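hiii, so i know i said id send this last week but things got crazy w the move. better late than never?? heres the sequnce for the chain we talked about at the cafe, plus the structure i predicted for it. fair warning i was half asleep when i ran it
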Amino acid sequence: MYRTNSDRKKPIGKGWLATLFCVVGVLVMLSACNSLPQPTLTILLVRHARTVANDEGIIMGGKSESDLCEEGIEQAKALGESLADTKIDAVYTSELSRTKETARIALEYNKACCKNIYTNAGLNDIDLGIYEGKPTEELLVTYGGDFINAGIGPIDDPNFVSPIEGETSYEFVQRFGDTMRSIAEESIARGDKTIMVVAHSSACYFLQSELNDPSYDHLDNASVTKLVYCDGKITVPIR
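okay and structure toks below
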């Protein structure tokens, strides 16, 4: 029996080898790219300084406004002095005047003179519905010390229905968290290294959820929590 040319094994051609080496090279390059360190961003999360409503024991939320009191103005100045030598590439505040005023006063002391100042509704305080603008005592009468669970619900319960016609803590955490990540990615794309975010006491619910740490149950007026954002994750190296 005679074998035809088609019966014989054909040698591997140079073209096939070249293609193989090309594919291997691309895979090696992709692997190297994936191993490169991801850009990081420092976020200085600030609660606004003390307000007149804080002094008077009035409930403030996402729909309520109150100016800084005299103590709050001094707090904002002290905040600015503490960050005077920190190069801040951008500042984000909520839509509410108490965060804007805190940022404005603090930046007067910043030697780098940050010019990138943005307002973002996603940073607004939690909506406290029918209790906004009312004395704190009304909450205590209705809920005692259990307002968190009974009034706005646990941070991990998507099915909780707000009895105060406002925002649940779960809804707030989702909204605030999405905003923080959007801001972080936007800042990294600009090449920012450090930003300041001026928000409200309700940011503590986000920190409890994001860091899985229930000890973040309160944020003092004009306090700073240093966060680090990298590859979609937020961590806290310094409290």
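btw The chain has one domain: 40-238. thought thatd interest u
miss u guys!!
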